[in-house]
Each structure stands twice: as structure tokens, then as C-alpha cells.
Amino acid sequence: MSEIPQNRPSDGLGTPVPVDALPLESILRTEELRKRPPRPPDYEKENAALVSLARALADSPRTILQILADTILEVCQSDSAGISLLTQEDGGRRFYWPAISGAWKPHIGGGTPRDFGPCGDVLDRNTALLFQHVERRYTYFRPVMPPVEEALLVPFYVAGEAVGTIWAVAHNACRKFDAEDERLMNSLGTFASSAFQIVSSLEALKSHATVRERVEGNYRALAESLDTQVQDRTRALDQRNQEVLEQSTQLRDLSRRLMQLQDNERRHIARELHDSAGQILAALAINLSNIMKQVEQSAPQVAKDAQEGRRLVEEISQEIRTTSYLLHPPLLDETGLSGALLWYIEGLQERSGLDITLEIPEDFGRLPKGIELVIFRVVQECLTNIHRHSGSKVAAIKIARVTNIVSVEVQDTGKGLSPEKLTEIQSQGGGVGIRGMRERLIQLGGEMTIRSSDQGTKISASVPCENP
Prior knowledge:
By secondary structure, this protein is α+β, with helices and mostly antiparallel strands. Helices cover 53% and strands 17% of the residues. The longest helix has 84 residues, at 212-295. The chain is elongated.
């Protein structure tokens, strides 16, 4: 990568600034980085990466910088990653790239000016920075392909002195870095510092043979120190993983109990609506009918009002009956999943105008009550989302049972989910309904996947099932 042309106005630090360069703040997105919800930490993956780096330090220190770049690429799920170090022969006037992984790997050996570039800004501010479209300010990036959508850079130090940065780049607009990426890169930065010391020692060893013994002794001490750090880190991560596992188990147990209470309460409310409120409304309808008959001749307007009142009571009764069935369909207990779904689909088609098809074997039979309820709720939530959000006019449901696995697929032909929303859902996010479906399935040992494009959305779920 060539330097900036020298016929430009200066930025005050000795490096010319292109006249069409945007201000630095216009490409910084560091505040936005702090606001983005971070993805859950993967301590097991982080621990494996640190152990791999420690082994590389002991086995092949000359390749440690490239291994570090490869590790950043993997743990941060970026498109390119690399290391920038200040040059030594010219007093640190430039950064050079000794190691790159991913799409930018052909640019190994390139670099940027110290006084006008992203790495220099990171060292000047002494903090991690998130950039977007760096070529808008640093115009020498314009020929570099693929272009930068986002770049996250963090400084690393040797003996308390900043000597470079480690960085991760996204070339795809769908990839957004978050605080977890920053935490991971800072964690790896500790090893980057040690790696730099080792590589520097080896380079010095080539030209200063007289200090060989002292440098190999320092290397062993450093390797032993790193091994101790890794062991301590491994124990700490194991303990943290155990704590997280216990908390996850407790939360899942609490979620299971809450959902059970919710289902019981739905069943109770449904029964109360159907029995108590339903009986009262039925009695009121009878009374209105009697009033209508008694005054039909003497007070025709009263009879007409009584008739209208009875009609309204019948409508309310129908609404209460529908609400009661939606809270807990009695057909689910009486005839099973097929009957309950057919009743629900028929009612939804009348209310929404959706064209819904249900494909389920005639000899499907009964399932354990808990599984029948979960599958009904999954289909119910999917159809509700299709009606409210997808814009689709049709929905197709397929339910099958092979050996001891029950599978469910719900497909629409709507506008689909945005890539950002799909990524959020696939990382265990999404709305209450999606999380509720996933949690119900997990509690029964099942799973759910979502695929979406501008051609529609398909939700697939499966759950193990023994004979009832």
C-alpha cells in the first residue's frame, strides 16, 4: 500500500491530509459499539483459543503473529483480521502488517502512516475504536479490496508502551461488531504482547549470537510464565463455566415452572369463562327471550330491544367461547392434536382470511399431553406471526412422526425477516413468542430452526417422543 501523495495540506502532525478526506468523527462508531447488545460470551471457545496461542508460543514462535491473526478471525467471526506494528528502523513513522488472515491476507506487508491512519488514531486516543468505511477519510484505502464496512481496532502494549494494534474487519454490512468482540480482542492482546516480545527476541538472536544463552533462558521463563497464566486462566474459566451452567440450569427450571403455571392458569381461566360466564350469559339470553315473548304484542319496541339484546349476548357468548378455546382448547384433551389444530385453523381462516393447509397423517394418533400442548402452541404462535407480520396470504403446516421424533414445519410466502433480525433470532434472541417456543421445545429435549428470505419464512421444530 503506497503512502499518501505529498502535495496535500498538512494535518499538523507532518502527514499530508487529502482535501477530500472526511473528519475523523464522521467515520467513528465507537459510541454505537457500546450501545449494541453483546452476544453471549463463549468461554469454552475463548479458552481453547488462548490454549492454542500458548502452544504456538512454545512450538513455533516464528508463526505466532499469523496464528494470532487466524485466532482473531475465528473468535470474532470477522472477514479479515491482522496485526499492525510500528516500524523500528525509521523511528516508528509507519505501521506495517506482518500478519493478516481472511480476505485481506494478500495485503501482508502493507501498512499505514503513523500520523494519518486508523492505527495511529487508536494509539493517540489510547482506546479501542470502531470505524466504518475508513476510505472516506483515509483515501489510500480506496483501492484496497474488498472494502471496509466496519473495523474494530484495539491497542496492545509491550512493557507499558503501545507498539501497535490488533484489528478485525467486516466486509459485509450484515456483520456488526459488539462489546463481546472488544472484550475478546483485549483478552487476546495480552498474548499479542508476549508474542511480540518472543518474535523480537528471536530476531535479535539471529544478529547477536553472543546473547543466545540469555535470550533462550528468557524465552523459557516467558514460556513457563505463559503456561502458568494459561493454567490459571483455564481454572478460572472452568469455574466460571460451571457457575454459568448452574445458573442456566436454575433459570431453565424456573422457566419450566413458570410455563407450567401459565398453562395451568390458562386452563383455569378457560374453564371459568366457559362454565361460569357462559352459564350466566346463557341464562341472560333465556330471560331476554322470555321478555321478548311476553311483550311482543303489548310493547313491540321493547320486544325488539330484547331481541337485539339477546343477539348481542349470543355474540358475546361466542367470543368468550372462542377466547376460552384459544386459552386451552378442550379438543386437545378430548380428541388430540389433529382435532384441536383443525378447529383452530378453521377459526383463524374465518377471522384473518389466511389460506392455511394442514398436512398430518390420518393415523397420527395421540401423543403425551405435554408434547401435544407444545406442538399446538408452536403452530399457534407461528400462524399468529404470519397473520400479523409476514404479509403472506398463505401458510402451510406439515406434521410428521418418524420413529420417536415428531417434526413440525410452518411455511409462509411473505416478505421474510431482515438479515439483522434473523441473526438476532438465531443467536437466541427475538421476541417473547419466539423465545417461548424455543424454551418449550428445549425443556422436552427438542430444537427449532428458522430460515428466511424475501421468498418467505420457514420454521422447523422437532421433539423426541416415546409412545404415550
